[in-house]
Amino acid sequence: MTFETESRSPETVAETGLSRSLLESLALKMVYLGGELSLLDLSERMALSFPVVDTLFRHLRTEQLCEVTGMDGPVHRFTTTSLGKSRALEFLRHSQYCGPAPVSLKDYINRVQYQSVQTAAVGPADVQKAFRRLVLSEETLAQLGTAVASGRSIFLYGPSGTGKTAIAETLADIYQDAVWIPYAIEVDGQIITVYDAGLHHCASDAAAGESEDRRWVLCKRPRVVVGGELTIEMLDLQADRLSSDFTAPAQIKANNGVLIIDDFGRQRVRPEELLNRWIIPLERRIDFLSLPGGRKFQVPFDLFVAFATNVDPNSLADAAFLRRIQTKIKVDCVSCPQFHEIFRRVCQDCELEYDAGVVEQLIDDLNRMKEPLRPCYPRDIVQHILWAAKYQSVRPELKRDAVAAACRNYLIGSAT
């Protein structure tokens, strides 16, 4: 299958890359659950062209699994026969998946390789635009842009509260293009769902044309975040115990985009276990997943992995693994001018009048406390001011007494 900017809708069963039996079982389940459908209804639900659906319908009718109930304009309406209902229930016991038809593993691999993160065009203007809401040095922006252009991986480390997570979550905004995500893929007769409406965000021009393969969704490059809940089992196919259906793991959902391992080193899985699991994927850009029975299959590992941690990287990984993470950026506390600028922006967002003198006093107080200037402080202190004003039913203001009260509540050992 040759991929251009758009995917051409298959006009025959063979062109779908799937077996007729799999498509017929999916169609029969849909008709059974729908009660009665027209060919156009079935085409819409299966995300397949009318000629393909018509072929499936004719075979189901020949096998006496469905029967015509009437006409909807020029097309048939039909429902399942008694034999069709019995067969549909058998299929549902095997798999309850009733979404759009999947794509073949071969087509999925080709598509992921075609729209690889390593070939995405990224330039300084894209980086400036993506990080316009964050206060970062030109050197840091250049490091981030170079890392994303590599399409490989990055280690963001440094003290807590310095914005590592915010930076990591912004990385996907650097990409200005869109990619095609399949609703599901088929492997050895098993359907694995990939598209996740909570993670994959449709591009603004994502409406499918008549000639496009509707089994794919045009989306912004994915941004998937996993944190302390991560286990080693979550890196393989996720099986539903009731339906026997499968959901793709986080790294597959993040393909052609960014996967963020937040607060790395504090997951339920030991760091060395996770790193050993990903030695080959990070090096060779491929991963292996397992189906029931132990059958393994190869999938692309085409994603930009961002590790964010406040733990010393040398204590988390050995030299062999750190070598595979091409870029390591220390995200540290900020300078006085940067602290002022962050505070000014936070005040602007919260509709508070900015007072440089009040902020300068806060900086002096933090210095006396031997507290570094963490980028999170302006947002957190202003939030305390807003909460106090809400409780007291007064208009929030950036005043010295309000900042002092916020610090007493927020900073341990504060005598401000």
Detail the topology: elements first, then pairings.
Blueprint: H1 20-34, E1 37-38, H2 39-46, H3 50-62, E2 66-72, E3 75-80, H4 82-94, E4 103-104, H5 105-114, H6 124-130, H7 138-150, E5 153-157, H8 164-170, E6 178-182, E7 184-187, E8 190-193, E9 216-220, E10 223-226, E11 238-239, E12 246-247, H9 250-253, E13 258-261, H10 271-277, H11 279-284, E14 286-290, E15 296-300, E16 304-309, H12 313-316, H13 319-324, E17 327-330, H14 336-349, H15 356-368, H16 376-392, H17 400-410
Parallel strand pairs: 4-7, 5-16, 5-17, 8-12, 10-13, 13-16
Antiparallel strand pairs: 1-3, 2-3, 6-9, 7-8, 11-12, 14-15
- Pairing-aware structural class of the strands and helices? alpha/beta
* Total individual domains: 3
Q: Report strand %.
A: 15-25%
Q: How would the global form be characterised?
A: elongated
Figure out the total of helices: 17
> Unreliable runs, pLDDT <50, ≥5 residues?
none
Q: What would the average pLDDT be, to the nearest integer?
A: 91
Biggest sheet strand order reads 4-7-8-12-11
The first-level CATH class name of the largest domain: Alpha Beta
CATH fold description of the largest domain? Rossmann fold
- Report the end-to-end length measured between terminal Cα atoms: 67 Å
CATH superfamily of the largest domain: P-loop containing nucleotide triphosphate hydrolases
Report the biggest beta sheet as strand number plus sense, adding barrel if it closes.
5 strands, mixed
Rg for CA atoms: 27 Å
Number of E-state strands:
17
What level of helicity do the residues show?
Answer: 40-55%
